[in-house]
Amino acid sequence: MLKDRHSEVNMERPTYSTKVNTIDGNPEERTMTTGRHIVRDIKCCGCESIVGWKYDRAYEQSEAYKEGKFILEYELLKIVK
C-alpha cells in the first residue's frame, strides 16, 4: 500500500511527477485497471522504445491524483553509462 498526499492507494507501481530523457506520445483514451483515463505513452529519447505512460486525465474523481504523473515500467528501462 502506498500513501499519496491526496489519498491512500493500492498500486503495484509508484507514480512520479518528473522525468528526463523521454518523449511523450499523443494522448489517447484507455481503459486501465483503475478505470478510464486519457494517457500518453512515454518513450526513450534515444531508442524511442515505450518505457511507461503518463496520466493526462482521470474520469473518476477518486483517480484524479494521478493526473500529470507517470508510470515507468522498470523491466523496460536500461542503465546507460
From TrEMBL:
Basic and acidic residues composition bias: residue spans: 1-11
One Pfam family recorded for the sequence: Yippee-Mis18
Positions of region (Disordered): 1-29
Protein name, entry field: Protein yippee-like
Highest taxon, organism lineage: Eukaryota
UniProt keywords, alphabetically: Metal-binding, Zinc
GO terms, molecular function: metal ion binding
Residue ranges with Polar residues bias: 15-24
